[in-house]
Design brief:
Layout: H1 11-25, E1 31-37, H2 44-68, H3 79-96, H4 100-106, H5 109-126, E2 137-143, E3 148-153, H6 155-160, H7 163-178, H8 182-200, E4 217-219
Parallel strand pairs: 1-2, 1-4
Antiparallel strand pairs: 2-3
């Protein structure tokens, strides 16, 4: 989970998610698509910030050493080495900026939320969630690096259901997600989403086809 590369799930865990979708869709003509991604953005700006901070720190330390006149102090003839050390420090900092804890440290929650929303919108189109006869598809996406879950309903559902009710679907999973129970969290959100969808677009006996796959979508 901490690498942003994805979450290794067992066959039983995938089965739990599939059964949760099947159960939720029994009472609604809507379609729920569960998805887990490793990360929603590259966050290269975090790499630059980490590189600049480390470079400035090394530059300040070495320059201070020269000013204080310590035995190993810098002299004018060593200016090239000072510049080289600063450049190397930037490279090292930029490398550290690829690590998940550093990304989270230098990236605001608003920016992460924006990236997750963009990834969900892209996935919604890529996996044809809107290709249901009444446009009643809902994407539930967990993004691991950002520790966020995003619910994206098709436009007709979005217009019929107040935003705060979709927020309840997210909140239903927060506790389990924070505890590290990713599968339990997404199953809880699916269940809550199914209850909501059964109210706004209930299933019709004998006319409730399974239009989209119930399998979990997994991407890096």
């Amino acid at each position: 989970m901490e690498t942003g590369k994805g979450l290794p799930l067992t066959a039983d865990e995938r089965r739990r998610i599939r059964l949760a979708v099947q159960e939720a869709e029994q009472h609604t003509n809507a379609e729920i698509v569960p998805m887990i991604v490793g990360r929603s953005g590259l966050y290269r700006d975090a790499q630059h910030r980490a590189g600049i901070i480390l470079a400035l720190a090394i530059f300040t330390i070495l320059l201070t050493t020269e000013i204080l006149g310590l035995p190993w102090g810098w002299h004018a003839s060593n200016a090239a080495w000072l510049i080289l050390a600063t450049i190397l420090a930037y490279g090292a900092g930029a490398g550290l900026g690829r690590l998940v804890p550093i990304i989270r440290l230098f990236t605001t929650s608003d920016r992460m939320h924006h990236k997750v929303r963009l990834r969900a919108e892209r996935a919604f189109a890529q996996h044809a969630v809107s290709r249901t006869r009444e446009r009643t598809g809902v994407l539930i996406m967990v993004s691991l690096l950002e520790h966020q879950i995003y619910v994206l309903p098709d436009q007709p559902l979005f217009q019929r259901v107040p935003m705060e009710r979709w927020t309840l679907v997210v909140q239903a999973a927060i506790g389990r997600l924070k505890a590290g129970d990713i599968v339990g969290g997404i199953c809880q959100s699916i269940q809550t989403c199914g209850i909501l969808l059964a109210e706004v677009c209930p299933g019709r006996p004998g006319d409730n086809p399974d239009e989209l796959s119930n399998e979990l979508v997994e991407e890096p």
